[in-house]
Amino acid sequence: ETGVTQTPRHLVMGMTNKKSLKCEQHLGHNAMYWYKQSAKKPLELMFVYNFKEQTENNSVPSRFSPECPNSSHLFLHLHTLQPEDSALYLCASSQASTSGGPADTQYFGPGTRLTVL
Amino acid sequence: GQQVMQIPQYQHVQEGEDFTTYCNSSTTLSNIQWYKQRPGGHPVFLIQLVKSGEVKKQKRLTFQFGEAKKNSSLHITATQTTDVGTYFCGSGNTPLVFGKGTRLSVIA
Question: What is the arithmetic mean of pLDDT over A48-72?
Answer without folding.
Answer: 87
